[in-house]
Automatic annotation (TrEMBL):
Binding site for GTP 2: 204-211, 251-255, 316-319
Entries under CDD domains matching the protein: EngA1, EngA2
SUPFAM superfamilies: P-loop containing nucleoside triphosphate hydrolases
Organism: Kribbella antibiotica
Top-level taxon of the source organism: Bacteria
Gene: der
Protein name: GTPase Der
GO terms, molecular function: GTP binding; ribosome binding
Record has Iron-sulfur as a keyword: no
Lineage: Bacteria, Bacillati, Actinomycetota, Actinomycetes, Propionibacteriales
Length: 460
């Protein structure tokens, strides 16, 4: 039996699925709380899937990139499968069945310390009906004594059970070898020059319709949707084709007002939402149009701007706003979002599909602004006109001058302005505002860095 030793040096880099063809997909299914997400973390070699002793933490189909023995594949974590589930648990189980049908092979996880249950036998019937190759993992085999109990899982009739410990890595090597034998070979790699899908994170407060928006864009139920706030826990990546282009949408957990007061899986979900923002190129901040704008909505947009990501603001549930109210709401939005006038805004309904066709043009405009580069000559001509018309005010008999400027980077556009002295913050904001007026930068933050010339100290 091949074990992963304690302290195994996992590869911390995520496989870049954007540079290759469609990878084979492995769906991980089983009853609630049998250790599926812990096993996912073991397979992918990093702690990404949210893990907690409470059953039902994972709710959506959550894909992760994995590598083993030089081969790459996609692991899809699913929520607990229960044949008698009702309410949200039934929606979670439905997502697990969708994952089985979409996968190339299935890893069925069973708790070896409990043995075969009615729910396990119900999952087996679904697996047989799907016709997909199945690898049976007997989890929680932490010692030799429990390993003999795992052999009783032969009774499920789907092949050899692999005794493993997702927590400690025991036996997972043999299991992964069996998984590679069940999965088809990956297709040849794409030419990296062709690039990959643009990454779009969907963020916002809990229960504003982020998952509904993803499902409407995908034109199918990719993630669980419920009226209960906090349904989404793990960020959910989905490749979706829109207007002939492939996009990678990332549905995230709702960002609550005080993360420091959140405990358990919600705390880690908030950290993963922040990581999804960092990984994205464009962030769609979803706002509930049927409710007044809150400080938390503005705080989320500020976080996106500080992260340097392109921004699109989606006012969801627009269908719940009556015609008379819409006129005044537009005025309120202009007032509330005065510092984000540069961000494209779309008024949509993820439920009815109203104005969803406006989303892609907004995303493309934000990406274009985020990648805009201003030639150095053009920038300095702009600065010359600006200083001639509006010079920096004189303070204490001194007037700092702008010497020259250059655009240091794109994504987001960042400018280095070299000056003879310190520039007042108000004048720095004035430069940023005029940069937008002249060069656009729609949907993108603009960072202006002042580099004041240091005076040489006279040695005595």
């Amino acid at each position: 039996m091949t074990d992963l030793p304690t302290g195994y040096d996992f590869d911390e880099t995520t496989h870049d699925a954007e540079d290759s063809g469609p990878l084979p997909v492995l769906a991980i299914v089983g009853r609630p709380n049998v250790g599926k997400s812990t096993l996912v973390n073991r397979i992918i070699g990093r702690r990404e899937a949210v893990v907690e002793d409470t059953p039902g933490v994972t709710r959506d189909r959550v894909p992760y990139d994995a590598d083993w023995a030089g081969r790459s594949f996609v692991v899809v974590d699913t929520g607990g499968w229960d044949p008698d589930a009702v309410g949200m648990a039934a929606l979670v189980a439905a997502q697990a069945e969708v994952a089985i049908n979409a996968a190339d092979a299935v890893l069925f996880v069973v708790d070896a310390t409990v043995g075969i249950t009615d729910a396990d036998e119900a999952v087996v019937r679904v697996l047989r009906k799907s016709g997909k190759p199945v690898v049976l993992a007997a989890n929680k085999v932490d010692d030799q004594r429990i390993e003999s109990e795992a052999m009783k899982l032969w009774g499920l009739g789907i092949g050899e059970p692999f005794p493993i410990s997702a927590m400690h890595g025991r036996g997972t090597g043999d299991m992964l070898d069996a998984i590679l034998a069940a999965l088809p070979e990956a297709p040849p790699e794409r030419d990296p020059k062709t690039g990959g899908p643009r990454r779009i994170a969907i963020v916002g407060k809990p229960n504003v319709g982020k998952s509904s928006l993803l499902n409407k864009v995908a034109k199918e139920d990719r993630v669980v949707v419920s009226d209960i706030a906090g349904t989404t826990v793990d960020p959910v990546d989905e490749l979706i084709t829109l207007v002939g282009k492939e996009w990678r949408f990332i549905d995230t957990a709702g960002i609550r007002r005080k993360v420091k007061n959140v405990q358990g899986h919600e705390y880690y979900a908030s950290l993963r939402t922040n990581a999804a923002i960092e990984r994205a190129e464009v962030v769609v901040v979803v706002v509930d149009a049927s409710l007044p704008m809150t400080e938390q909505d503005i705080r989320i947009m500020n976080a996106v701007e500080e992260a340097g990501k392109a921004l699109v603001i989606a006012y969801n549930k627009w269908d719940l706003v009556d015609e008379d109210r819409r006129y005044y709401l537009e005025k309120e939005i202009d007032r509330d979002l005065v510092q984000f006038r540069w961000a494209p805004r779309v008024n949509i309904s993820a439920l009815t599909g109203r104005h969803m066709e406006k989303l892609v043009p907004a995303l493309e405009a934000a990406l274009e602004g985020w990648q805009t580069r201003v030639p150095t000559g053009q920038l300095n001509a702009f600065l010359g006109r600006l200083v001639a018309a509006h010079p920096h005010p004189v303070r204490s008999g001194k007037q700092p001058k702008i010497l020259f400027g250059t655009q240091a980077t794109t994504m987001p556009p960042t400018f280095a302005i070299f000056t003879s002295g310190q520039i007042e913050p108000s004048y720095q904001r004035f430069i940023e505002r005029r940069l937008r007026e002249d060069f656009g930068f729609v949907g993108s933050p603009v960072h202006v860095q002042i580099r004041a010339r240091q005076k040489n100290k006279i040695k005595r």
